From TrEMBL:
Lineage: Eukaryota, Fungi, Dikarya, Ascomycota, Pezizomycotina
Keywords in alphabetical order: Coiled coil, Membrane, Protein transport, Transmembrane, Transmembrane helix, Transport
Species annotation: Immersiella caudata
Name the UniProt record assigns to this protein: Vesicle-associated membrane protein 4
Cellular component, GO annotation: cytoplasm; endomembrane system; membrane
Domain V-SNARE coiled-coil homology: 27-87
InterPro entries noted in UniProt: Synaptobrevin-like (IPR001388), Synaptobrevin/VAMP (IPR016444), V_SNARE_CC (IPR042855)
Residues annotated as signal peptide: none
Record-annotated membrane-spanning stretches: 91-112
Membrane topology recorded in Swiss-Prot or TrEMBL: Single-pass type IV membrane protein
Region of interest called Disordered, as start-end residue ranges on this chain: 1-27
PANTHER family documented for this protein: SYNAPTOBREVIN FAMILY MEMBER (PTHR45701)
Length: 115
């Protein structure tokens, strides 16, 4: 600023130091191109965030469905486990009764012949 020139103010037109279509216009065009690129990148980012949100919502719905399905599976598995336990117990009881009858059939005649 020691050269005697006034400070640059973009709102005050030049006093003729630069040509009308010169470096100032090129600089403005370059800045506008950078701004346009930045705006394009930001729009892409916003679209990606929106799509990510939609995918997260879909994933949340699938997770909820899977949790409900898992709970139903657990109930069904417990029901089957209890049914199989009762079936096993019935088989053991019948097997015990059969062995007891077989022992009675063998022991009673042997005991009556021995007396």
């Amino acid at each position: 600023m020691s050269t005697g020139q006034e400070p640059y103010d973009p709102y005050i037109p030049n006093s003729g130091a630069a040509p009308a279509g010169g470096a100032g216009n090129n600089r403005t065009q370059a800045l506008q191109a950078q701004i346009d690129d930045t705006v394009g990148v930001m729009r892409d980012n916003i679209n990606k965030v929106s799509q990510r949100g939609e995918r997260l919502d879909a994933l949340q719905n699938k997770t909820d469905d899977l949790a409900a399905s898992a709970q139903g599976f657990r109930r069904g598995a417990n029901r089957v486990r209890k049914a199989m336990w009762w079936k096993d117990m019935k088989m053991r009881i019948w097997l015990g009764i059969g062995i007891a009858i077989l022992i009675i059939i063998i022991v009673v005649p042997a005991a009556s012949h021995g007396l």
